[in-house]
Amino acid sequence: MSEHKHEHHILSIKTAGIILGLLLLLTAITVGVSRINLGFLNVAVAMTLATTKALLVILFFMHMKYESRFMQAIVFMCFLILAIFIGFTFFDVAYR
Amino acid sequence: MSNSTLSFWEETGNGRTGIMGWLTSTDHKRIGLMYLYILLAMFIVGVFLGLAIRLELIAPGRTIMDAQTYNTVFTLHGVIMIFIVVIPSIPAAIGNLVLPIQLGAEDVAFPRLNLFSWYLYVGGTLLALVSLFTGGGTPDTGWTFYVPFSEFTTTNVSVAVIAVFILGFSSILTGLNFITTIHRLRAPDMTWTKIPLFTWSLYATGWIQVLATPVLGITVLLIFAERVLGVGLFDPNKGGDPILYQHLFWIYSHPAVYIMILPAMGVVSDIIPVFARKPIFGYKTIAFSSLMIAFAGSLVWAHHMFTSGMSDTAVLIFSLLTFIVAIPSAIKVFNWTATLYKGSISVEPPLLYALGFIFLFSVGGLTGLILGSAGTDIHVHDTYFVVSHFHYVIFGGTGFGLFAAMHFWLPKYYGRMYDKTLSKVAFYILFVGFNLLYFPLFIIGLQGMPRRYYDYLPQYQDGHIISTVGSWVLALGLAIMFYNLIKGCLKGEKVNGRNPWGAATLEWTTPTPPPLLNFDREPDTSRKPYDFKGVTPDE
Amino acid sequence: MSNHVHKDYAGAKLGMWLFLFTEVLLFGGMFVLYSAYFHEYPREFHIGGKQLDVVIGTLNTVVLLLSSFSIAAAITYIQQGKKKLALIYTYLTIGAAFIFLVNKTIEWRAKFHHGIWPDSPHLRELSHGENIFFGLYFLMTGLHALHVIIGMVVLSVMVYFLKKDVINQQDFVKLENAGLYWHIVDLIWIFLFPLFYLVL
């Protein structure tokens, strides 16, 4: 039906497989690191790893790597706003 | 005019006629009008509740209702006016009527989703009404649903918050639809710098709707969960922190006031140049300041919480940030004034209401600075000063913006003109009534009259009497205005030609009333939206 | 008649992403609460986290990651015109969602067994911080599980569309958007998992 052909990036199964492997590896690392007591660093490490995993999902599985600059910008903005909501709440919570 | 094209009144687009032709129509104009009818009906309900509050307060002690009824009446007034009237007013109703045509599009990006949003709106409204008559009584929490009271009151808060959730969802989907429409359905050559400022303001609004409203969604769901499950997230007896509720609530509800005011600013930006016959001063700064307001508005929510027991650091930071929002708002006011300067002004009703907006909004905005600065806020927090400030911004701002929009655009969609003299009379009565009603509240607020109180000391009575009398004047003005608009739309003089005001945006190049798919010829996008060279009002 | 059905691929995508933003911020409100309470009760959150089953949590993480892969693969296959493989991988995704829910049920039932549910007498005896931890645990994983269920329904509709060739090699944006929704469900779990099961 659609009369004009779009240029779509097709994620190859191989790439998807590699990403899956990386995600599983990062999950293993996340669990492993949580067994070691690093104090406050544990939270930082866990969140960094989770963010990395999230990035992989967004960039590859959700095709964001191949989307326009505008789409990338609004996704960034969405997470920035969430970070502001959480961060600014800490102006209160952290200084009580 | 041209009889080759049927208007959207005659052609439904789905083969159905009569009431079903409306209820199943995905035409943005029909949906816009359906929003308008319901929200104006609810507005009148809200006005009556407001009048009842004012009448109760004309004298200390019991006047016409008992204290519990009073609590439910001001709660209802707030919930109806905020969630059912003001938030969808300009974006959903006027936005649906105007936005696609201003872009040169045939409809919004997702017409069926648009209709679905309307059904959600109706569903949410009905559910809100259901909450009045079921359960343990009408909600009495105020529109803010503050915990812990909202968790434990026996009145029917659970149903009310679900209604708010549904209304919020409707608002989200409308914002989503408009953003996509603006990105994807602009006519060829309708570049970003040719988009009319009303549509620009809806773009900024759409982003707030998409990014902030979900937080309201989860907040009201949490109230519901607390009432049903009793987790204790906001209950100090179980380790919860009520102040966190206030954070969540205002993370949405502060940006929400920009959902309310930004579209009204857009309306004014579209009206002023038409009646000054001059290109708008600083098109790009107005468009950009809308985005600035949308963004900066998300950073300042905790200025509603200076006396809540929040940390002093937060008070300082949020007070400072609050002043940033004043800048883009002021930019707009200066640009409107500069547009009027040396313009060839014709005082038609839409301009009059738009000027009313500028004046009342400025009063509201400037008193907002007193509230935004923590030192002064401590003194006037939770007094009638806040009530007055808020009504100057939302009623004087969004309300008058909506009235201006109706006087500006409705003749286009109904193809009939109201009585212009009568609408000016209505305006002056409204304007006087408005200031009589709300200005004394600033004074008694400064003197310490607390908001939401059923009873008060005799020293505040003078202010309350003036205010209540003002509410009657205001109601009279509203009655005349609505009478005139309704009569004009139904039986008024036929509008001859496409462009009764001599405006330069695309909606005035379509037939009056517009046909189902809006245009009977390719929209001419070569012209800038406020370039009036060679454009004259059709007589 | 409105026979002007314009297939706007980019518009559909943009609309879906905007919707996903609302999902992110819906959960975002809960994350605001989580971080504030974690700041207030770090020790109690640690004690609470120890009581959750890391094995089931890890297993469910793996299941969701696999399902994310399989829906991504399904989209790749339909783009390559391999309808049968696309169908199989969509089924696999639904299957993974089901396994996730089974695990979740087992986990919740075990908690109920230990007398832990919202506002339970046992929880009321525990410290405030633990009550909040489990409260958040039930609300956040519950809301997430609700999204898993919605995702299953959406994916089932996609199976129907695939069978009816409504989704095909030329027109697959519906499946892509369903996939995006499913990835968001996975994405939220990626954060829920360390926040609840691995807190220190």
TrEMBL record, chain A:
InterPro entries in the cross-refs: Caa3_sub_IV, Cyt_c_oxidase_su4_prok
UniProt xrefs under NCBIfam families: caa3_sub_IV
Keyword annotations from UniProtKB, A to Z: Cell membrane, Membrane, Transmembrane, Transmembrane helix
Pfam families in UniProt: COX4_pro
Subcellular localization(s) per the UniProt record: Cell membrane
Membrane association type: Multi-pass membrane protein
GO cellular component terms attached to this protein's record: plasma membrane
Taxonomy, superkingdom: Bacteria
Keyword Transmembrane helix listed: yes
Transmembrane segments: 12-33, 39-61, 73-91
Protein name: Cytochrome c oxidase subunit 4
Main location per the UniProt record: membrane
TrEMBL record, chain B:
Family as reported in the entry's similarity comment: Belongs to the heme-copper respiratory oxidase family.
An annotated GO cellular component: plasma membrane
PANTHER family with a match to the protein in the record: CYTOCHROME C OXIDASE SUBUNIT 1 (PTHR10422)
Pathway where it operates: Energy metabolism; oxidative phosphorylation
Keyword entries, A-Z: Cell membrane, Copper, Electron transport, Heme, Iron, Membrane, Metal-binding, Respiratory chain, Translocase, Transmembrane, Transmembrane helix, Transport
Membrane protein topology class: Multi-pass membrane protein
Residue span of region Disordered: 512-539
Stated name of the protein: Cytochrome c oxidase subunit 1
UniProt subcellular location: Cell membrane; Membrane
UniProt entry tagged with the keyword Translocase: yes
Domain Cytochrome oxidase subunit I profile: 16-526
Native source species: Seleniivibrio woodruffii
Known function: Cytochrome c oxidase is the component of the respiratory chain that catalyzes the reduction of oxygen to water. Subunits 1-3 form the functional core of the enzyme complex. CO I is the catalytic subunit of the enzyme. Electrons originating in cytochrome c are transferred via the copper A center of subunit 2 and heme A of subunit 1 to the bimetallic center formed by heme A3 and copper B.
Lineage: Bacteria, Pseudomonadati, Deferribacterota, Deferribacteres, Deferribacterales
TM region positions: 33-53, 73-98, 118-137, 157-179, 200-224, 244-268, 280-302, 314-338, 350-370, 390-410, 422-445, 465-486
EC number: 7.1.1.9
Alphabetical list of Pfam families matching this protein: COX1 (PF00115)
Keyword flag Metal-binding: yes
From TrEMBL, chain C:
Chief localisation class: membrane
Protein localization: Cell membrane; Membrane
Cross-referenced SUPFAM superfamilies: Cytochrome c oxidase subunit III-like
GO cellular component: plasma membrane
Family note: Belongs to the cytochrome c oxidase subunit 3 family.
PANTHER family in alphabetical order: CYTOCHROME C OXIDASE SUBUNIT III, NITRIC OXIDE REDUCTASE SUBUNIT E
Transmembrane parts of this sequence: 12-34, 54-78, 85-102, 132-160, 180-199
Heme-copper oxidase subunit III family profile domain location: 1-200
Taxonomic source organism: Seleniivibrio woodruffii
InterPro entries reported for this sequence: Cyt_c/ubiquinol_Oxase_su3 (IPR024791), Cyt_c_oxidase-like_su3 (IPR000298), Cyt_c_oxidase_su3-like_sf (IPR035973), Cyt_c_oxidase_su3_a-hlx (IPR013833)
Protein name (database record): Cytochrome c oxidase subunit 3
Any GO MF annotation of the entry: cytochrome-c oxidase activity
rRNA processing listed as a keyword: no
Superkingdom of the source species: Bacteria
Pfam families: COX3
Biological process, per Gene Ontology: aerobic electron transport chain
Membrane topology: Multi-pass membrane protein
